[in-house]
Amino acid sequence: MEDKTEEIVKQYPIHVNGKRRIRGAILFEAKEGIFTLIHCRESEKKLSFTEQIKMKLEEQGRKAIDLALKTENGSYTTRDKQGNVWILKRWFLGRECNLHDNDDVREVVQNLACLHREFVYPAQDIIKDASKILTQEQDQTKTDCLEDFKKWGCKKEITGTLHRHMREMKRVYNYIRTKKQKNEMEICILNLFPLYYEQAGKALEQMDQESFLYLQQQSVNEGRLYHGSYNHHNVLFTEHEIAVVNFERAEFGMQIVDLYHFLRKWMEKKGWSVHSGIRMIEEYQKIRPLSDIEAKMLYLLFLFPEKFWKQIDFYYNGKKSWMSLKNYEKLRKMEEQEQERQKFLREIRGLLF
């Protein structure tokens, strides 16, 4: 492994002084800065798209971005003798956001609002600029590559995903009902299902309105991008600034998806504290005010019981011969927190519209 990584890094224009392992990567200290070497699961075309939007952010003054380096041959990726694909990215020494520290969370939410304000890049500009950074080997397939860039402006329409989740919830419920013997977790799922299935139905009924479909298309047309994985692992507090990393899931669409995912996970840890949740939404809006339709969509995303879907999805796709105590405890915790979650939903409904 040591020899393999050394051979890989030699293909990049850096002078390594030392290296060590970190979570999911190998960190290199070089004359040119700090870098991480990671396995790459993306195509060269998708990497070109991702790197182009990160370059745009850097041009706008956001320097703490994990830009990928190109090899001496002009490619973002390299392969080892076993055929594994690697990518080398700029990295930063710092600590992850502490979700138990409200000041940390406030800064991360403010940073997200600033990122969203900057993260507007019309698709035609990305297509035009990305075509300039394709390697010579890709010239023959440039037309196909640009078509891929266009697709990333339209994929993952969120209401379609949530409709699928709702169908999966119903399928798991029907599966458990037919079982003759049920364990504690399965009984818990059956008891909670009516409440959360009703919430999912109410959320999707309103999301299916034409105005929300328009919001998705409007976001794409305006070139609004979102990070796609903005969580406490991907926001680093360095000595001088906040670094944002791992943009692999970035695409065109509704930016409030980032805000929802970050706040939902944090609110679960906070026991759905009404005061804390409202404060963070207000902090975001001080920098990037939400439109009326965005505000209502944010509420509906919170209304949809994503956590319940995740837990029963884990159950259905895992081993059913034994009960996962960890997942069962999460379901019980959801049940215990539901009253506070309902208070939060009522309060933000009044706040947002």
TrEMBL record:
Gene3D superfamilies: 3.90.1200.10, Phosphorylase Kinase, domain 1 (3.30.200.20). Residues 178-270 form the Aminoglycoside phosphotransferase domain. InterPro entries: Aminoglycoside_PTrfase, CotS-like, Kinase-like_dom_sf. It holds the Pfam family APH. PANTHER family: COTS-RELATED PROTEIN (PTHR39179:SF3), SPORE COAT PROTEIN I (PTHR39179). This is Phosphotransferase. The lineage of its organism: Bacteria, Bacillati, Bacillota, Clostridia, Lachnospirales.
